[in-house]
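Action item from last week, closing it out:
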Amino acid sequence: MDKYQQKSATALQYSGKAAPTITAKGHGELAEDIITLAKQHGVLVHQDDELSKLLNQLSLGDEIPEQLYIVIAELIAFSYVLQGKFPENWHNIHQRVDIKT
């Protein structure tokens, strides 16, 4: 099995001030270790082969390119909702998300 058929993982860090950056990446066993470590620390893991191919072209420390801003922003926003985190001024006017207080 070549490296393109092996499982791959890319970790992003987002501080809220600049574009997310690549903080870890690997293939095969290293990818499994990255995923396991992320899950152990409560980091949500998103699996998408096409996005993974794009992110794997970047180097450690690189910011994501502008072309990926929208998809990464949507994933970050969705992960916040899954964790019950909402902006202070968000009022859930349509009651589409069950907020547990």
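Closing note: The helical segments are 29-40, 49-55, 69-82.
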